[in-house]
Amino acid sequence: QVQLVESGGGLVQAGGSLRLSCAASERTFSSFAMGWFRQAPGKEREFLAAITWTGVNRYYADSVKSRCTISRDNAKNTMYLQMNSPKHEDKAVYYCATAQSGTSRYEDAYDYWGQGTQVSVSS
Predict the structure, then answer these.
(1) CA-CA distance, 119 to 116, in Å (whole number)?
(2) Are strands 78-84 and 68-73 parallel, antiparallel or unpaired?
(3) CA neighbor of 15 nearest in space, from 68, 88, 80, 69
(4) Is residue 19 predicted with pLDDT exceeding 70?
(5) CA distance 114 to 71
(6) Is-contact 40 110, C-beta < 8 A?
(7) Cα-Cα end-to-end distance for the chain
(8) What pLDDT, in 10s, does the model give residues 37-61?
């Protein structure tokens, strides 16, 4: 069983920057593709970005492509999501997940999920 723990959430100023981290199990992290999702109050969970196990190929949702960067450091068993210029609409719980089948924008492709980290945006 893969263990994932998100961190870095909190209150961020609109127009600033945000960096989220996802710490994973040491034994399996480097073998899986990973992704970031978020779920705003009253909304469905939405895909943000995904990265292959090598970290070479990255994919982004069109809505955040210009503002987000996904990366991973397998030596540290950690994945990251950097968001520039966060907006009020970015308020949500952010989740990281692993996918043994490879990168995907669909929730069903992911096998294990973290518990999420809350992100709020203030003016």
Answers:
(1) 10
(2) antiparallel
(3) 88
(4) yes
(5) 17
(6) no
(7) 40
(8) 999 999 999 999 999 988 999 999 9
